[in-house]
Write a structure and sequence with these properties.
alpha/beta
């Protein structure tokens, strides 16, 4: 891990609160990746997913919205696009070694971090019992897309509260025990604390991204490739993905959280 401009107090706080954030990826056995739309995980963390599944880690995708708004083509209806994007996501996930997909079915652009959405995610955490939860960073500066902000917030709250039996207590009646994942990791983040070398998995990542044919042109794929090359340059690799790894102690009343 590389750290840029981190002072002694922050280093001490990081050690006390997080230990080694890289451990989130080294020790995990089950990952729950909660994305706002079909394609978000491939874009932000496809290399990581490929790396994890290659060593036998179980990765489960949860997609919050149906993706029905993601087109400029007036001839394609919302319902038609939602079907297309679901098929594209299934193909992309398969390329990366992911076979378990959950669809929450919220309308694209209309996700809100309600108690209902939070509790749905809590139930999934209790079903799959992940060591690591992966999602978008809702605190990304200038993030204008509601689905990203609201999904990230709902997932963060679910992560924090899923170990408390009186939160979403109906789960107990269904035989679901409280479960607290060890870490949450955010992609599309402004202040990463871990850079993952994804150079060996870059072509697989972009094969998965290209499966989202309704979303990306050759030009946009080239732009994304350059983006991950720039992240790699920061970390001394050909290509890298960047993550902000946190735990429950970091996500509540922690004045050092932004810099951990």
């Amino acid at each position: 891990m590389l750290m840029f401009g981190v002072d002694g107090e922050v280093l001490e706080a990081r050690s006390l609160v997080l230990g080694r954030p890289e451990a989130a990826f080294e020790e995990c056995r089950t990952v729950l990746s909660v994305q706002p739309h079909p394609d978000d995980t491939e874009l932000g963390a496809g290399g990581l997913v490929a790396k994890l599944t290659s060593r036998g880690v179980r990765v489960v995708y949860v997609t919050v919205t149906d993706g029905g708004c993601g087109t400029t083509d007036k001839s394609v209806s919302w319902e038609e696009l939602a079907v297309i994007r679901r098929k594209e996501q299934e193909e992309a996930a398969s390329i990366l070694g992911v076979s378990e997909l959950v669809w929450l079915g919220y309308r694209d652009t209309e996700a809100v971090a309600t108690t209902r959405l939070r509790d749905q995610i809590i139930s999934l955490i209790r079903i799959y019992k992940p060591d690591l939860v992966l999602t978008v960073d809702p605190w990304l500066t200038y993030e204008a897309h509601r689905d990203h902000r609201e999904t990230g917030l709902a997932v963060s709250e679910a992560f924090l509260l899923s170990g408390l039996p009186n939160v979403n207590r109906a789960d107990l009646e269904c035989g679901l025990e409280p479960h607290s994942p060890d870490y949450i990791s955010y992609y599309w983040t402004r202040k990463p604390n871990v850079y993952i070398d994804v150079s060996p998995w870059m072509e697989l990542k972009f094969k998965a991204i290209a499966a989202h044919k309704s979303q990306f042109t050759e030009g946009s794929l080239a732009l994304f490739r350059k983006y991950f090359e720039l992240l790699g340059r920061r970390a001394g690799h050909s290509y890298a993905e960047a993550f902000k790894v946190m735990n429950s102690t970091a996500l509540h009343c922690n004045v050092f959280a932004e810099d951990l």
